[in-house]
Predict the structure of GTPase HflX.
Amino acid sequence: MNDNASRVTRAWVLHPDIKSDPDRRLADHALAEAMALAQALPELELVGGEIVPLKSVRAGMLFGSGKIAEIGQALEDQHIELVLVDGPVTPVQQRNLEKAWGVKLLDRTGLILEIFSDRAATREGVLQVEMAALSYQRTRLVRAWTHLERQRGGLGFVGGPGETQIEADRRAIDDQLTRLRRQLDKVVKTRALHRAARAKVPYPIVALVGYTNAGKSTLFNRLTGAEVMAKDMLFATLDPTMRRVQLPDGPEVILSDTVGFISDLPTELVAAFRATLEEVLAADVICHVRDISHPETEEQAQDVREIMASLGVEEDRPSFEVWNKLDLMPGDAADAARARADRDDHVFAISALTGEGIEALLAAVTEKVQGRKRLVDLSLGFADGKKRAWLFAHELVEQERQTDDGFEITVRWTAQQEAQYARL
Ligand SMILES: Nc1nc2c(ncn2[C@@H]2O[C@H](COP(=O)(O)OP(=O)(O)OP(=O)(O)O)[C@@H](O)[C@H]2O)c(=O)[nH]1
Ligand SMILES: [Mg+2]
C-alpha cells in the first residue's frame, strides 16, 4: 500500500517511436516534451526516460517480448514504480505491462488528466477535469479512476472485473457524469449572468492562446501587471484569468490568459473544457502566442490551429501570431524573425521577458479592436463621381480639397472598406 503522500514515486518515461505511425514526431523532441509533462506532476521523482524504437505496435503488450524483458530489468534495477508511456496504451496492454513489470502505468492521456486534476483550482475547472477523467475511464473500465496518491499498489488490478461488473461500473459512471454535467451547467449559468452584467460595459476581449509553455502567462503579467503563475512547467495555467487593460492610445480591453494546448490533447479534455474555452475563443481578437525559439515551433503552431478549428473558431477571426522568446534565439535567426514580422501584418516578434516588440503588438491590437481605421489620402478625377459619392455615403471623408483636375480626399476607413472601395 502506498498511502504515504509525502513519499515520492520513482517514475520512468518511455516514448514509443513507431515507424509505421504517419504522424510520427521527431523522437528526441517528443521524449523531451514527455519528460517535461512528467515533471509537471507533483510528488514524482523522474528518474529518466528513453526512446523505444518500434516497427509496429503489438496488440497485447505494445512492445516485443525481448524489449519487455530488457526494459523490465532496467526498471527493476532502478526501483521504478510508475512508467509513463508517451502515447496511447490500450487497457489490455496496460494490464499486461503492469503485470510484466510490476509497476503502475499511465499513458499520455492519463498523464495529462493527472496534471489537469492537480491544477484545477476553480469549481468549474474541477468539474471539467472530473468529467474528462470519467469519460476516459468509461472507455477503459479496467480499474477505477483514482488519483495517484490514492491508488493501490501496481499489482492490485490484475485479473480485471467481470462483464456484469463492467456493465454496473459503466452505469455508475454515466450517472456520475450526468450529475457532474448538471453541476457544471449551474456554474456556467452563474458565470454567464456575471458576464451579461459585465457586457453592459462592452469591453472588447483579447484572448491569449497557444501551446503550453509558450509564454502566455508571462505576456499576460507584463501587460496587466498581474502575477499569474508563469513557470517553466507544462500546464502552469488551467483556469482562464481575465483582467482589464488600458491600451495605450486606445480603449480598455479585457485580456484573458488560458490553458495551454498540447499535441494529442485528449479529446475528453477538449470536450470538457469546451464551455470555458468557447467563451474565451469568442474574443474580439485572438493572439496566438508561440515559442518561436522552440525547435518544433511549427508543429506546435499547427497543433494549436487544429485544436482551435475543432473548437469551431473560424479561420477569418481577427487574430495575430505573437512570436515570443525572441531573446532566446541566436542573433541572425532573431533578425530573420523580426524581418518576417515586419513584412506580415499578422505577425509580431516579441520577448515577453525583455519587453521587445510589445509596443507594436499593442498598437496593432488597438487598431484591431477599433475596427482598424487608417487615414489615407486619395486623389480623384472629376470622372470619379461615383466613387466620391460612395465615400460620402459611407461617412468616411475627413477632409476634401478641390484641385484643378479633381479632388484630394482624406478618408479614415477599415481594411474592409478599403477593399470594397477598390472593387468599385
Ligand atoms: N527567455 C524567455 N523566456 C520566456 C519568455 N516568455 C516566457 N518565458 C518563460 O517560459 C516559461 C513558460 O512561460 P509561461 O508564461 O508560464 O507559459 P504559458 O504559455 O503560460 O504556459 P502554460 O500556462 O503552461 O500553458 C517560463 O519559464 C517563462 O519565464 C521570453 O520572452 N523569453
Ligand atoms: Mg500559463
In short: Confidence is low (pLDDT under 50) at residues 1-5, 143-160. The two ends are 78 Å apart (CA to CA). The CA atoms of residues 128 and 273 lie 6 Å apart. The pocket of magnesium ion (ligand 2) is lined by residues 216-217, 230, 236-237, 257 (CB under 6 Å).
